[in-house]
């Protein structure tokens, strides 16, 4: 079946560091990918829609200069958390698919900013 | 405005019992309704999905019941097992310009006691 790979699974870094998270669709082409943030025991909060070859679409309240998204190919989208601070610590999950097809999720990235 | 409301927030069931989770939606343009299962530290995975042209779909121990007029759908887990203990999310999505963008319920934490 379709698989989405997300890397790294865990990041611990100092405040002020920029962190890049990769999301790859392994056996299908994804013109659209989604980035979510999930707080403990909470639902998935859509941050942005990553569009291959064009700018990402951000949800209201999400800082586009803080969370940089690049979707340079049909199999790779990246999320860069710039100048990360402790309040950016969270579980970030990417997905591909949707509409009349299920979304295929990566296994998430646990980001901890010290 | 929350477009998909999920209940209960948490559920405890004895092994062998039936687990029932309910969702209600508001937007009649939704036409794809998946359920996802998420284990701690992992991304959600598709469990079962339904389209509004049928009222029920069964896959093994998992059944979705769909009531289009009431704008409600539910997940039934028969013969619940401890391995079913996880967080379950209902979701809804549609064709068109927002294709792929899913709206998620807040999640239900299911605990199946041995």
Strand element count of chain A = 11
* Largest β-sheet summary of chain B: 6 strands, mixed
Low-confidence parts of chain A: none
Roughly what fraction of the amino acids of chain A lie in strands? over 45%
Describe this structure in words.
The complex is a heterodimer of chains A (114) and B (114). Chain A has 114 residues and is an all-beta fold. Helices cover 0% and strands 54% of the residues of chain A. Chain A has strands at 4-7, 10-13, 19-25, 32-38, 44-51, 57-58, 67-73, 76-81, 90-97, 103-105, 109-113. Chain A is globular and about 40 Å long. Chain B has 114 residues and is mostly beta strands. In chain B, 0% of the residues lie in helices and 52% in strands. Chain B has strands at residues 4-7, 10-14, 19-25, 33-38, 45-50, 56-59, 62-67, 72-77, 86-92, 103-104, 108-113. In chain B, strands 2, 4, 5, 9, 10 and 11 form a six-stranded mixed β-sheet that branches. In chain B, strand 4 (33-38) and strand 5 form a beta hairpin.
Concise description?
Chain A is mainly β and 114 residues long. Chain A is built from no helices and eleven strands.
What layout of secondary structure does this protein have?
The complex is a heterodimer of chains A (114) and B (114).
Chain A: E1 4-7, E2 10-13, E3 19-25, E4 32-38, E5 44-51, E6 57-58, E7 67-73, E8 76-81, E9 90-97, E10 103-105, E11 109-113
Parallel strand pairs in A: 2-11
Antiparallel strand pairs in A: 1-3, 3-8, 4-5, 4-9, 5-6, 7-8, 9-10, 9-11
Chain B: E1 4-7, E2 10-14, E3 19-25, E4 33-38, E5 45-50, E6 56-59, E7 62-67, E8 72-77, E9 86-92, E10 103-104, E11 108-113
Parallel strand pairs in B: 2-11
Antiparallel strand pairs in B: 1-3, 3-8, 4-5, 4-9, 6-7, 7-8, 9-10, 9-11
What descriptive keywords fit this protein?
heterodimer, A: 114 residues, mainly beta, 7-stranded mixed sheet, 4-stranded antiparallel sheet, B: mainly beta, 0% helix
């Amino acid at each position: 079946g379709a698989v989405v790979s997300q890397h790294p699974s865990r990041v611990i870094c100092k405040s002020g560091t920029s962190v890049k998270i990769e999301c790859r669709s392994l056996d299908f082409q994804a013109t659209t990918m989604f980035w979510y943030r999930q707080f403990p025991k909470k639902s998935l909060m859509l941050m942005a829609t990553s569009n291959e070859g064009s700018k990402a679409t951000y949800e209201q309240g999400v800082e586009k200069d803080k969370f940089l998204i690049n979707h340079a190919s049909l199999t790779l989208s990246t999320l860069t958390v710039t100048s990360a601070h402790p309040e950016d610590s969270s579980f970030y999950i990417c997905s591909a698919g949707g509409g009349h097809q299920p979304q295929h999720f990566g296994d998430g990235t646990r980001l901890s900013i010290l | 405005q929350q477009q998909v409301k999920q209940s209960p927030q948490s559920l405890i069931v004895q092994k062998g019992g039936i687990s029932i989770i309910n969702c209600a939606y508001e937007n009649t343009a939704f036409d794809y309704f998946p359920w996802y299962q998420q284990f701690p530290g992992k991304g959600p995975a598709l469990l079962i999905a339904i389209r509004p042209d049928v009222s029920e779909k069964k896959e093994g121990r998992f059944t979705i019941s769909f009531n289009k007029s009431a704008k409600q759908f539910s997940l039934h887990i028969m013969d619940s097992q401890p391995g079913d203990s996880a967080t379950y999310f209902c979701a809804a999505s549609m064709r068109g310009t927002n294709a792929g963008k899913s709206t998620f319920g807040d999640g239900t934490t299911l605990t199946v006691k041995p």
